[in-house]
Batch of 2 targets.
Target 1
Amino acid sequence: MTRMAATRDGYGQALLELADNPKVVVLEADLGKSTKSLHFRKAYPDRTVSCGIGEQNMLLVGAGLASAGYIPFASTFAIFTERAFEQMRNGVARPNLPVHLCGSHGGTHTGTDGSSAQSIEDLAIFRTLPNVVVMHPCDDVSTRVLTMQLPALGQPSYMRTARNKTPVLYDGREDEIQIGKGIVLKEGIDVAIIACGVLVSEALKAAETLSGKGVNACVVDMHTLKPLDGALIDRLVAQCGAVVTAEDHNIIGGLGGAVAEHLVSNQPAPLERVGVPDRFGESGQADEMLEVMQLSAPHIAAAAEKAIQRK
């Protein structure tokens, strides 16, 4: 049976493993229990700064620490990172300071918290900032590995994690995970499904459905939205000739937007975007939200068939 875990747990585990580096410090905005930074706080209280419900202040505290040679990891809910956009822009990204921001509980998969708490625009917002690396991993293993790679990055980052458990795909495959490099989880020649976050496992289910119809779909985990793995996308276009993107995010500006931008400038190909259809969410269970927003495996499979017809 497939192990299930939440990506936020991988983030919390990584912080503990990074503690061997004395320059690593952790910042919290009153949500350490939810973002899983509390484990670091309990073990290293002298290297943890509680900023209260002050996300803007947290980012600038992080900028100050980074300018003094520290490597700050700051976290809160994804929706609350948006409060600190100006500070991320002018205090962190513009001076290119290595502050690593993690937004937990992103997307409509957050479910019963409702539309006001469902961040469907965070990836787009932070992708617009120069110098900022943007990631949305799909399981706890890849989240841990990618977080572990951040201290060597030398520039700011934004990572989105999720509250609810998803299938673990990378047990024993840690060596395949690298910032900026998409991972082919299933080879195929008829259509390429490029997914991130909670929809990677849904994309794999969609590929199974398509296989039963004689369609051989390639599935890619594009955990890094910026810098986008353009070389891989070019190979997929040459190999498959049609592309689908799948994300729990507005279809505007996220993974679908990033792939569309690359295709139009490099290797044009039919593209179908599966994502939140430019609307706000609502309150419901995680699986219910995937259906309401038409993000689940059947909708990904239908988009793949449509993309193939457009070749």
Note: DSSP finds 13 helices and 14 strands in the chain.
Target 2
Amino acid sequence: MSTPKETPNASAPLDRGETHDVTELHAAVLREKPDPVEGFEPLNLWVVAGIAGLLFWGGSYLTQYSGRFEANEFSEYPHGKPAPVAAVAADPMAAVKRDGMLAYNAVCALCHGEDGAGKAGVAPPLAASDWVNADGPNRLMRLVRHGLKGPVKVNKDVIWNPANDPGIVMGSQWDAIGGTNEKLAAVLTYIRSSWGNTGAPVTAQMVADGLAPVKERSADDNWTEEELLQVPTSGSGAPSVAAAPTVDQLKALLKALPDDQRQDVLKEMSK
């Protein structure tokens, strides 16, 4: 008597032709947890809790101390009226200073530096310079208009003398900065108000008046310190003229001379 073959149930999750459920055979293996992989370890629950706490605290802090994120609110607290913002007076010379800054950075900063500190052996400093902070700009505008040669006493602590090299000369920068009174006034205004300098602004009219006495001077005729010191810092810019001595002063000078020199002077005066 033959044993009848079992017909597979098509609806059962069995492989075709199998008579046993393999899932039951592998149940023990399926209950095992997978081996850990380096770099994919689960986070510690305390770390997760700590991060969640920080996020909660950050949100609470921004809620309480944001000042509603309003630009006119100085108080960090969110309640109450916005703190009033004091009106900042507009600088009437802002446009002039900006124009001067652009010209300075394009021309003057190559030697004097963008910070006005100057460069050893190349150009003297402009920051904290007595020439820059003078009462008026007459001497400073001549430096830019006609250039400078020779040593210069910048202030009581700094004497600029590039190794006694007479070949180092600052030429005229008039054309380089724009060649107008307005451009020169803007550059001088920027220099006199930057890097801690306290000089007053310079106007185009001040430049016109200050340069009027030297309008015929050649751009190649560089100034020396001795010449500039004879120029008043403000006003018309014309060199000051010493008052003529009185008759009594002349007599006193003649009496102070030795006899032979006095006689020579009198002879020259009688010719």
Note: The longest strand covers residues 148-149.
